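This section describes the prediction task in plain terms. A model, or a person checking by hand, is given the sequence of a single protein chain and must write out its three-dimensional structure as a string of tokens. No templates, partner chains or ligands are provided. The sample shown here is typical of the held-out split.
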Amino acid sequence: MPPRTPRPTPQPGEAARLADQFQAAGFTKRDIARIIDRDPSLVSQFYTRGKGAAFIPALTHTLNAIHTAGITDLPELAAIAARHITRRTTATGTRARVRTKAVLITPTGTGTGRAGAQAIASGSARLRPLIAEAARQGLRLAFTVRMPKTGYTLASGSRTDSPGIRRDVLQRTDHTEERSYGSATTGGFDAADFAHRVDTAGGDVTAAIHQWLLETGRIHRDAHITHLEIRTWRPR
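The expected answer:
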């Protein structure tokens, strides 16, 4: 059997050119991803896989708003972009399905959402609907944070850090630690409070959790969260 001929790598197109203009204006790939409400990995694929054609109108109108009106606020730019993003259609003309991971909160109020390194980079946007729905239902929440050990200000296992949490601190071989905050036993946190924090942070769940940890003296200002887990339940 003759060897397969490798497929040619798609060349960067118009979406990549527009992304370059965003970066020249001081925006990052993460900022561009937030503006079009997608993962930063997709923006990288503008360059490596020639993707992004569906976002050209949104990127073009948003750039115009930056250059002509001087708008730099990300939520405002995202609102402009949203008006020019249309869903893909199938061959029959119906809307194509978008592959998403469903956010599930059971009738008892139990729900769990996780964000890894890639999602963290885009503000853990997938966790925002879970927190918002938990707030709407009046639920409690807890969360687990993973970051380099040097990011924490309190010693591992300190009861000052996570009072009443029986779960041991989980130490990883990459010198990161997972620490849990809140539980059903201790009462956890008001989901509405954290939903408000997320809204104040422009929808950035990572930034909202980071700010809480900073305000409560648990981390250093330059600490970098690598993973997040949110858990919810209905108060008794």
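For orientation: The beta strands are 111-115, 140-148, 170-171, 176-181, 189-190, 227-233.
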